[in-house]
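Reading is simple: each integer encodes one residue's backbone shape. An example follows:

___
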Amino acid sequence: MLRQAVIASRGRSLSLQSTLILAGAALIAASILIRPNNHDEGQYVAAIALMRSGWPYLDFAYLQTPLQPLLLSPLAAIPAGWLLVAARAVNGLFALLTTWLLFRQLRSRVQWRSAAVAIGALLCTEPFLFAASLARNDALPLMLLAGAQAAMLAATDGHRRVLNHAVAGLLFGLAISTKINAALPAAGAGVYVLLQLRRTGVTPLLAMTAGMAAGLLPCVVFAVLDPAAFRFGVFGYSLDAPRQWWTSIGQQQVLEPSVRIARLFVLSLSGMIPVGLVATAIDRRAGEDRRLLDLMIVGGLIGCYLPEPAFRQYLAPLLVPLAARFALAIDDLPKVRTRITAAAVGLAALLGLLPTARYALRAARHGADLVRTVEDARAVSALAAGRPVATLSPERVAGRDVDLDPRFASGPFLFRTFGELGDDALRFGHSPDWQRIDASLSRHAPGVIVVGGEVRPAAPFHPHGLDAHLQAWAVSHRYRRVLLPDGQLTAFVRRNGA
């Protein structure tokens, strides 16, 4: 009878896991379809497309660590417009695999209901859906962190300690090679290993270090090939450009520590983060798994705060350890606390899904941006007829049949720099800023210039948006104006002999 009960319980757990993952897949797929275009997607989609003919840092600018375009380079064979769809879909798959890895590491630690509550809450958290739905570089490091965390948790139980530490180090290194802020949760795990040295000896630390060194090889290779360009893309730009941009448009207050903390708090309300942190703080039960996850959460919190200014994507490194820790915290709760937790999780889920609901209403009224992007990209491909295409919105036109101008691989980000930072952008990123486009474009004129994605005014230098500089150049050089199918973007086509 006992064996039958165990089998039945395991069957219910697997059924619930499958149901939740299928529901998560449907939610992520819907979010991918209805999310508006985001200019952050530009450099990631452009980097994938430009992998057909070059390498990041060496041949075009890339403002992140290099693993994602290397890994996703086969997508460059996908036609224009559909590349954005494919990149979003792959990120959705990474996010879904993250939830599966969380289930795997929690199944022997908590009741299946606790795991389901924590992972369901994660699926309804806006920073997670943001990472899962856009063609950015947030979802891949989430998946790699989830795998590293699973290996570390297995090591805390004494299972193949050396091997699991090596695997965890490798996955941490690969996560950092995808996005540098993954280093903070990884550092938390490293502190845990250091604290265990007296009990476990130095071998696990050496294994983890060796694995991480292997995972960081993509960074090492490019750092050796072009140290200055790599340093600028990964560190220099992110350290200097946000302050220059937000100060230049009169919004430097968003960089203040108090404002960043307040913004992070407000952004965290869209989902499980406050509930998870409160539950973690209340749960004082001891255990190596809890100690590990707590240290990774501390690293994640520091990682959330460091970038300037605060945006929802910076909450992503916190999510994987927090979801696992939340499941541990709510396991075996008394009935009263279980009811309170259920109410809190329900409210958090509703708040987390509000942005997705707004996007759904917008898409129902006006149609999905993603669908219109495919139509526009096909039109640009036909107009270009193999000639280079320059745009600050490369995500909207990139694909096999569009020859992207690599000078604008970073979308608006290097283009909006100036001064010494603009000098570095041109020297190390091959990218002219808004003050230098005349010399750059006159020397190598693109066949088509696409504008309309960067029209938000930014006084005093860009009262009509960043695209106005490209448009003015195209008009002054007698490019032919063509309105693209969705009516938002405009293509300027070089005339024969111009």
Remarks:
- The chain has a mean pLDDT of 93.
- The longest helix spans residues 2-34.
- The chain has 23 helices and five strands.
- Residues 32 and 133 are 4 Å apart (CA to CA).
